[in-house]
Amino acid sequence: MSENGDHGNHADNGDELQDDEFPLGDGTVETEATVVCPYCGEENEIAVDPGSGESQEYIEDCQVCCRPWRVMVSYDGSGEVFVHVEAADDI
């Protein structure tokens, strides 16, 4: 037990998440999504990172044909993910 009477079961390193950054909801946040390549039409499963913010945009290559996509990811208040991909050469 520490001087202040707690049992030391938590770390106070200033990295605690703010409640408004990650709403409580049901406690689940999607971390994977299935998308269809705009070039070859094949389904791809991609990892999505809720820790990178509620709205994200980046380039990722197709796992089948290796052509680049522009990936747009957004999370709603309940943690549900919405993913849209388009051909990177369309931008």
Structure commentary:
- Helices cover 0% and strands 35% of the residues.
- It is mainly β and 91 residues long.
- The chain has a domain at 32-90.
- β4 and β5 (81-87) form a beta hairpin.
- The protein is elongated and about 35 Å long.
- Mean pLDDT is 79; it is low at 4-19.
Topology:
Layout: E1 32-36, E2 43-47, E3 55-61, E4 68-75, E5 81-87
Supply database-style keywords:
91 residues; two-stranded antiparallel ribbon; mainly beta; 3-stranded antiparallel beta sheet; single chain
Name the shape in a single word: elongated
What fraction, in percent, of the residue positions are helical?
A: under 10%
The helix count comes to 0
| Portion in beta strands | 35-45%
Question: What is the distance, rounded to the nearest whole angstrom, between the alpha carbons of the first and last residues?
Answer: 58 Å
Which structural class do you get from the secondary structure elements? mainly beta
Number of strands: 5
Profile the largest sheet.
3 strands, antiparallel
Q: H/E order of the elements?
A: EEEEE
Q: What is the gist of this entry?
A:
By secondary structure, the protein is an all-beta fold.
